[in-house]
Amino acid sequence: MTEQNLTHIDEKGEVRMVDVSQKADTERVAVAEGFIAMNPETLDLIVEGKAAKGDVLACARVAGVMAAKQTSSLIPMCHPLNITKAKVDLAPVVAGEREDGRVGVRVLATCGVTGKTGIEMEALTASSVACLTIYDMCKAVDRGMEIMDVRLLKKDGGKSGLWERS
């Protein structure tokens, strides 16, 4: 691993927002995922549309998009971005589809922007908040749900170009 400086720490060791004013606008995209594990009965309620609070997947999808747009309000050194794309896909995961055997919902968030800084935080926030929304809507029947595997899968654009999780 090469030695790199943390961009949000100045030469005095103080936290700062990175100055991106001299950077060129480029198209950027980021894809992040998350997974919320739950009891099979809880997943059945979601898939069958029988959750007491309503359509869990539709609500989580909207919450994820809204979260992407609010990321700079939540993450202190994150730049406000004029997001050009925010998409949240949710897929039920049944027994046998994951190595660990867990069932639940996989969240895949894709965000895009034409700008001076990356959009990874927006994709990560979207996937996290979508998982949190599923938890909120189903906690009455399954308080043991676990949010896990929130991670960046891909980012492209800017000076560093393409990065993909191997």
Automatic annotation (TrEMBL):
Pathway: Cofactor biosynthesis; molybdopterin biosynthesis. PANTHER family: MOLYBDOPTERIN COFACTOR SYNTHESIS PROTEIN A. InterPro entries: MoaC (IPR023045), MoaC_bact/euk (IPR047594), MoaC_sf (IPR036522), MoCo_biosynth_MoaA/MoaC (IPR050105), Mopterin_CF_biosynth-C_dom (IPR002820). It is an enzyme of class 4 (lyase). The lineage of its organism: Bacteria, Bacillati, Actinomycetota, Coriobacteriia, Eggerthellales. One of its GO terms (molecular function) is cyclic pyranopterin monophosphate synthase activity. Substrate binds at residues 77-79, 121-122. It catalyses: (8S)-3',8-cyclo-7,8-dihydroguanosine 5'-triphosphate = cyclic pyranopterin phosphate + diphosphate. The active site is at 136. Pfam families: MoaC (PF01967). Catalyzes the conversion of (8S)-3',8-cyclo-7,8-dihydroguanosine 5'-triphosphate to cyclic pyranopterin monophosphate (cPMP). Belongs to the MoaC family. The keyword Lyase applies. Its EC number is 4.6.1.17. HAMAP family: MoaC_B (MF_01224_B). Homohexamer; trimer of dimers. Gene3D superfamilies: Molybdopterin cofactor biosynthesis C (MoaC) domain. It comes from Raoultibacter massiliensis. Signal peptide: none annotated. This is Cyclic pyranopterin monophosphate synthase. The keyword Transport does not apply. The gene is moaC. Residues 17-158 form the Molybdopterin cofactor biosynthesis C (MoaC) domain. Keywords: Lyase, Molybdenum cofactor biosynthesis.
